[in-house]
Design brief:
The protein has about 70 residues and is mainly β. It has one domain. Helices cover about 15% and strands about 40% of the residues. The chain has one helix at about 5-10; strands spanning about 15-20, 25-30, 35-40, 50, 55-60, 65-70. The radius of gyration is 11 Å and the shape is globular. The relative contact order is 0.24.
Length: about 70
């Protein structure tokens, strides 16, 4: 994924749901299988990692405005 793809994804509204098979990971509610949001060991690491095809491509301490984690 290049920077322009990442910029588009960050501007996309995504509702993240807990992944029932992987603790501390979330999947989008639109069933896109290739992206995941992972909760890291904060504060030693950024709070979240964005994974695409199981490769870390971005790190966040604050989620983009349009991203919501369902509780």
């Amino acid at each position: 994924m290049n920077n322009s793809h990442m910029a588009v994804l960050i501007q996309t509204s995504i509702r993240w749901l807990p992944d029932p098979q992987v603790p501390f990971q979330y999947q989008p509610d639109n069933e896109v299988d290739s992206i995941r949001l992972q909760l890291n060991e904060f504060p030693e690491e950024p709070l979240y990692s964005l994974l695409i095809d199981d490769v870390e491509v971005g790190y966040f301490d604050d989620l983009p405005i349009g991203w919501v984690i369902a509780r």
